[in-house]
Amino acid sequence: TALAPGRLAGELTRTTVQLRILAAAVRDGRYLDARIDHADADAAPAPRPDIRRYLVPVGPVLNFAASNFPFAFSVAGGDTASALAVGCPVVVKAHPGHPELSRRVAEAASAALVAAGLPEGTLQLVEGEEAGLAVLRDPRIRAATFTGSLRAGRFLADVAAARPDPIPFFGELGSVNPVVITERAAAERGEDIASALVASAAGSAGQLCTAPGIVLIPAGHGLDPVLAEEAGAVAPHGMLNPRIAEGYAGGRAAAIAVDGVRLVAEGRAPAGDDGSVTPTVAAVSLADFEAAADVLRHEVFGPFALLVEYPAGTDLAALAACTFQGELTASVHLGAEEADPAAAELIRVLAARAGRVLVDAWPTGVSVTDAQQHGGPWP
């Protein structure tokens, strides 16, 4: 995967934390969402019998493993663990980017499940696109999960919906994770925001579902030197596999070829056998962005951030409302004491379009907690 050992070790810890959190949910029974109304002969408008409602397992679940988190979003990752926790057997379609690891994890997890008293075959692994499609179409599968590209995810969602008995499809299909920097925030702490932006966009070579991709920032912000210096200091990092490297190179090239886009930090694109990259930061005026939104509004999966420079006095809530659709995250950076109605309306608009809204914070480094939200409106 070209992911650094430190990153992988941290991810493995996260994976075990996910499993333990879900084990705790099983023990306390909250996942059942149980509701009980005892019999009441005096209930209005008529006597009521004893009524009990609780959730039951839907049946076998198919999980299409992700490429960018080979532990936490793969064979024994969150999708698999949550399905197992509520009593659903799981078939994992392994990602081709880490097949050997997928097999080893499947062996270890299957052995642990059997040792805990679950039946053989509670967790199974299949490999290859055709095998994955065959399982998705199998009438015994009652739900499917996916993390990956919009193109692949939409195709699989359509397959799930086209079955004689359509099934739920839980997909995470891409996000630009917009960041909105107000004029006051840029004036008060612009350099700190610029440094943190590069760090968030460049982590793991930008191959994170929550990496910030589009940044609304005041025109004339004067932060180009800081952004260029911070991006230039990032060490080269390999990409997950040749297909992702090719996709990043193409998306990056298409974005920077748009009229009006300028390079703040050129960065390194994958080339030939050298798939290593460094961050690219580009900038464009709001007018030029809107003229080429069909190209620039899409996710570029990798260490790429696009600054969209808006004129002074822009209604940021209205701009966000017409610019962004369904996102995993949205971040807003405010000035000190900037708690006016305009800021509140901006946050409200972002909350309608993103699963998670952050104020004066960055979307990468997702905490694994009960209150965490990872998902949003389509796509």
From TrEMBL:
Record-annotated Aldehyde dehydrogenase domain positions: 48-219
Pfam families tied to this protein: Aldedh (PF00171)
Keywords associated with the record: Oxidoreductase
InterPro entries for the chain: Ald_DH/histidinol_DH, Ald_DH_C, Ald_DH_N, Aldehyde_DH_dom, Aldehyde_DH_Superfamily
UniProt GO MF annotations: oxidoreductase activity, acting on the aldehyde or oxo group of donors, NAD or NADP as acceptor
Matches recorded under SUPFAM superfamilies: ALDH-like (SSF53720)
PANTHER family per the UniProt record, alphabetical: ALDEHYDE DEHYDROGENASE-RELATED (PTHR43353:SF3), SUCCINATE-SEMIALDEHYDE DEHYDROGENASE, MITOCHONDRIAL (PTHR43353)
Protein name: Aldehyde dehydrogenase family protein
Species name: Clavibacter michiganensis
